[in-house]
Amino acid sequence: MTNSILVTGGTGKTGSRVVKQLRAKGLTPRIGTRSPQNEGEVRFDWKDSSTFNDALEGVGAVYLVAPTDTVDSLGAMRAGLEAALASGVTRFVLLSASSLEEGGPMMGAVHGWLRSNAQEWAVLRPTWFMQNFSELHHRDPIRDESAIYTATDDGQIGFIDADDIAACATALLVAHSVKNTDYILTGPEAISYDVVAETLSKQLGRKIVHHRLTVDELGERHQSHGLPEEYAKTLAAMDGAIAGGSEDRVADNVYKLTGSMPTPIDQFVQQNLEAWST
Q: Residue 1: which pLDDT band, with cuts at 50, 70 and 90?
């Protein structure tokens, strides 16, 4: 792509990494954020249509990150997506999830919209992020309680590093053409939370315990940490699906898209030990 690239959620978990990798290629992406503060950032808010025109002017490709405060992703994003089409955007790369099929809930609905409306599109469907342990909701319990709380039982997941997701997004944003399809993204192996706990225990030198909750108990825990009730229950239900084997798979799309193997969990833990230092 030769036109400008807008990265929505540009200061977030994957968006900031996409920005970094695009810059490493000598490009100057436009960083969409609700509160721009630094060079290259522009105000973009899915809920505020007044932010669309400036953010999208001259843009040919957009990295799409859905707002996290609603399960109605398409309802929240439709006006912005339509504005992007009207402004001349031809390529969309959507961050979805391995658990969300096209036409399903949340980003699955956006996936379906892209197929019906976009000229060029790709949907990244990663499994659960390794950064959940080092930066997001599992970090503090690991650091402060030597604990991980899930409702996944023995379910296995091909945990993936957000840097690998960003590498896939970057490759698709700059490619000469895309295939208008979706890509399941995983790490190199499917493992349980027990294995994650064992890996952390070995490298941290202290026992990390995986506490097995029910889906209802996990939903209540999410709510107690400030998540809206519907979103909390949706996340907890995803853990229940994992317990049933929904994420027990490994895909080779990271290698196909980037030419590099995805990061294994032991390497990730070694690289992020400071996240759990007490």
A: very low
Which stretches of the chain are DSSP H helices?
A: 15-24, 52-56, 73-87, 107-117, 131-134, 139-145, 162-174, 193-204, 215-224, 229-243, 253-258, 265-271
User: Is a pLDDT exceeding 50 seen at residue 2?
Assistant: no
Q: The tokens 């999208």 sit on which residue?
A: 56
The string of pLDDT tens digits covering residues 133-152 is: 999 889 999 999 999 999 99
Selected from 3.40.50.11030, 3.40.50.920, 3.90.226.10, 3.40.50.720, the CATH number assigned to the domain covering 4-126 reads 3.40.50.720
Residue 266 near residue 199 (C-beta atoms within 8 A)? yes
Angle, helices 73-87/107-117, rounded to nearest 10 degrees: 30
CB atoms under 10 Å from CB of 95, counted, come to: 26
Exposed (0-12), middle (13-18) or buried (19+): which is 264, by Cβ within 10 Å? middle
Quick: pLDDT tens for 53-102: 999 999 999 999 999 888 899 999 999 999 999 999 999 999 999 989 99
Domain ranges of the chain: 4-126, 130-159+187-248+264-278
DSSP states along 99-143: T--TTSSTHHHHHHHHHHH-SEEEEEEE--BTHHHHTSTTHHHHH
Which of 79, 64, 62 minimizes the C-alpha distance to 6?
62
Say if CB 126 and CB 188 are below 8 A apart.
no
Mean pLDDT, the chain, integer: 96
* CATH number of the domain located at residue range(s) 130-159+187-248+264-278 in this protein: 3.90.25.10
Interacting residues of 37 by C-beta distance below 8 A, sequence separation 6+: none
